[in-house]
Amino acid sequence: PEDAKLDKIWKICGRDTEAGRLMYQFYGAGAKPEIKYPKVKVKSAKQLEEEKKAKEEKKACPQKAKIEYPDPNPMPERVNDAIKYVPKKKSKGVIEKELEKEKRAPLLRPKPGCNRAELIDNLQEEYQFSNGILPKSVQSTAIKFSKEKK
Predict the structure, then answer these.
(1) pLDDT tens-digit map of 93-125
(2) Rounded to the nearest 5°, which phi and psi values hold at 5?
(3) C-alpha dihedral (94, 100, 101, 103), degrees to nearest 10
(4) How much is the pTM?
(5) What backbone torsions phi and psi does residue 60 show, to the nearest 5 degrees?
(6) What does the angle CA 107 – CA 113 – CA 117 come to, to the nearest 5 degrees?
(7) Rounded to whole angstroms, what are the CA distances from 5 to 10, 21, 27, 78?
(8) CA 61, 63, 64: angle at the middle one, nearest 5?
């Protein structure tokens, strides 16, 4: 709470006076906070010697050490790299065979143009009295007209 009061004390004098500027330097926003660092812990010579002895005691006997040997029949690694699926270069003979097949294949010509107005008329005649494509509201009126004509 006292620090909060000191943070604003410079505002009373203002920064235009020398006293206000000094107070701002000490207590204002630009003042660095005080950092309290923990004390450095230093090990004594006795503690270091005890640690060395503990490490030496933990070492296992070399005759009893477990040795790991590689597996005599390892399974081959199955690697699915993307590079396996990239097509390789083709030889000249393979390319020539492919070109010969394309030359022998019959040409598929595009469909000739058609008269759209004629197609529309044909569709209208075909589906005028059917029950498949048209909505129910339109179908019922089409059925009534077809019964009257017959």
Answers:
(1) 999 999 999 888 877 776 778 888 888 888 777
(2) -70, -40
(3) 150
(4) 0.21
(5) -80, 160
(6) 155
(7) 10, 17, 9, 72
(8) 70
